[in-house]
Design a protein that fits this description.
CATH superfamily of chain B: Thiolase/Chalcone synthase
Strand order of the largest sheet of chain B: 3-2-4-7-1-8-11-10-9
CATH topology of chain B: Peroxisomal Thiolase, Chain A, domain 1
Number of strands of chain A: 8
CATH architecture of the largest domain in chain A: Beta Barrel
Oligomer: heterodimer
Largest interface: A-B, 36 and 43 residues
CATH class of the largest domain in chain A: Mainly Beta
Strand content of chain A: 35-45%
Order of helices and strands of chain B: EHEHEHEHHHHEEEHEHEHHHHEE
Strand order of the largest sheet of chain A: 6-5-4-7-8
Shape of chain A: globular
CATH architecture of chain B: 3-Layer(aba) Sandwich
Distance between the termini of chain A: 37 Å
Helix content of chain B: 25-40%
Order of helices and strands of chain A: HEEEEEEEE
Structural class of chain A: mainly beta
Radius of gyration of chain B: 19 Å
Structural class of chain B: alpha/beta
Number of strands of chain B: 11
Helix content of chain A: under 10%
CATH class of chain B: Alpha Beta
Radius of gyration of chain A: 16 Å
């Protein structure tokens, strides 16, 4: 897909990942689903590791989940992010995990197991998702 | 059944000093270490017919060979994933030697990973190839350093096992105790207390400053030959009793967030199983362990994966001097990569060689077998080195 055809402007994406960032433009968390055997797969891959089909579709997640793990990045400074920057590994209700920022949540309140909900926003003009307390 | 056990041996080791500013090129560092290793083995550059390293080394196999005046090369290889592959060059060398395609293989790492570039810097993937697009899938959210990637995995380990920051501190104190008596270590003469560890600032929660390996300039080279040849050379031969690589199904490099156990365990356990089987040994047969400490907290699940203690029990295993010289299983007797230097794991292999030879500064008594590991949390490798 040429750059002009992409509906997103996220950094460093290719044919296998474009769907995800386009999903964020549409304020959706899209996860790949095999068109043949229906299994969800995360992170994205061009082929189903179970049935080896190259056909896939996407499934929109509800955006609700729990914090499975997290970190708080303090050093070195990350260009484009305010320090300290909390990032979570969220286990969505659908059983799939996604990495996303947790900056709406006060750092000292972040806990594994906390119920969270997705928030779609723009970081430097790029459509992104992060999570806040549910 | 054919086995690699004891077919190859380490005949020589060499290294430059480890520093924060070598003042010379990475190629020169690698050449110096290689020449030192050859001298240690009593061999000449013209004896070299194999070269093996691992990625993120900027000295190509053929350029280093050309620089030292090696002979015709009939074996040369490079294993992926940086420090996760640190033991793989010796595995590859053993495979090549055992199959008769090479006789003298140089395994090396030479880097100015402090004065010229720094692995601690944020990772910013650019060209969207499959490797970079996968990294960006994570870094785009601000999870963008190797430390942060491992911290995510270890936070969950702490939650599941009840391991605390203070528990990691015991391993840090042990490592720095060993470094403090090692003249080659950056922290020679500088042990730490548990208070020092706990007072050190958070870098990426839950990792503190003293959880991180150093950034270092330096080179290590290791000469591998057949066991028979090594026995006829200068030094006491150090047998490659076992060697293995491991990437369990679905393995990723530092972003294993999508499997059942996100801690850096499964890949280490896969290597450990293979090593014990090849060597026909159990954890009880190991007298010392060099456990890769890119991030010191990950040493704990590695100890569990190697069967030195049960899952969740490493937090007690590392207390009361158990992993120090004089304890039940001395770990990282050179001070580790937090204490000695960070030559991407190869300085740990060199320490294991010294332990088997009986020439280590912090020598463990009655060494028969030493486990050496490469970086966990990614496709990994490991060795059991032992007395002939």
């Amino acid at each position: 897909m040429e750059a002009a055809e992409k509906r997103h402007n996220a950094q460093c994406s290719n044919r296998d990942y474009d769907f995800f960032y386009e999903g964020l433009v549409d304020r959706k968390i899209l996860i790949q689903q095999c068109a043949a055997c229906e299994k969800l797969r995360q992170p994205p891959e061009p082929m189903c590791p179970h049935c080896h089909s190259l056909e896939w579709k996407t499934k929109a997640m509800a955006g609700s989940g729990k914090i499975y793990s997290y970190v708080v990045h303090r050093h070195p400074p990350l260009p484009g992010f305010e320090m300290p920057h909390p990032v979570g590994l969220i286990e969505l209700d659908e059983g799939v995990r996604v990495v996303a920022a947790l900056d709406p949540i006060p750092i000292d309140q972040i806990k594994i197991g906390m119920p969270v909900t997705a928030e779609f926003f723009q970081r430097d003009n790029v459509a992104m998702v992060r999570f806040r307390r549910a | 059944m054919a086995t690699l056990r004891d077919k190859a041996a380490i005949a020589g080791i060499g290294a430059t000093e480890f520093s924060k500013r070598s003042g010379r090129s990475e190629m020169q560092l690698a050449a110096e270490a290689t020449m030192a290793a050859l001298a240690d083995a009593g061999l000449e550059p013209s004896d070299i017919d194999g070269m093996s390293t691992y990625t993120m080394d900027n000295n190509s196999e053929i350029e280093l060979a050309r620089t030292v005046g090696a002979g015709d090369l009939t074996f040369f290889s490079r294993t992926n994933f940086g420090g996760h592959g640190a033991c793989a060059p010796l595995f590859q060398a053993a495979l090549a030697i055992n199959s008769g395609v090479a006789n003298v293989v140089v395994c090396y790492r030479g880097m100015n990973e402090r004065s010229e570039y720094r692995f601690g810097a944020p990772i910013m993937p650019a060209i969207p190839d499959s490797q970079n697009a996968l990294m960006a899938y994570h870094t785009n959210h601000g999870l963008a350093t190797a430390g942060a990637w491992m911290a995510m995995a270890m936070q969950r380990y702490m939650y599941e096992t009840g391991t605390t920051s203070e528990d990691f501190g015991h391993m840090a104190v042990a490592s720095r105790r060993h470094a403090s008596t090692n003249p080659k270590a950056f922290f020679y003469g500088k042990p730490i207390t548990l208070d020092d560890y706990m007072n050190a600032r958070m870098i990426v929660d839950p990792f503190r400053l003293l959880d991180f390996c150093q950034e270092s300039d330096g080179s290590v080279a290791i000469i591998v030959t057949s066991a028979e040849r090594a026995k006829s050379l200068k030094q006491k031969p150090v047998m490659i009793r076992a060697a293995a690589q491991g990437a369990p199904r679905g393995q990723m490099a530092l972003t294993n967030y999508y499997r059942d156990d996100i801690s850096p365990t499964d890949e280490v356990a896969l290597v450990a199983r293979q090593l014990y089987r090849m060597a026909d040994l159990t954890p009880n047969d190991i007298q010392a362990a060099i456990i890769y400490d890119h991030f010191l907290p990950s040493v704990l699940p590695s100890l569990e994966a190697y069967g030195f203690c049960k899952r969740g029990e490493a937090k007690d295993f590392v207390k009361n001097g158990n992993v120090e010289i004089g304890g039940g299983l001395p770990v990282n007797t050179h001070g580790g990569q937090v204490g000695e230097a960070y030559i991407h794991g190869l300085n740990g292999v060199a320490e294991a060689v010294r332990q088997v030879r009986g020439t280590a500064v912090n020598q463990v008594k009655n060494v028969q077998n030493v486990v050496v590991t490469a970086g966990s949390g990614g496709p990994t490798s490991g060795l059991i080195l032992g007395v002939a």
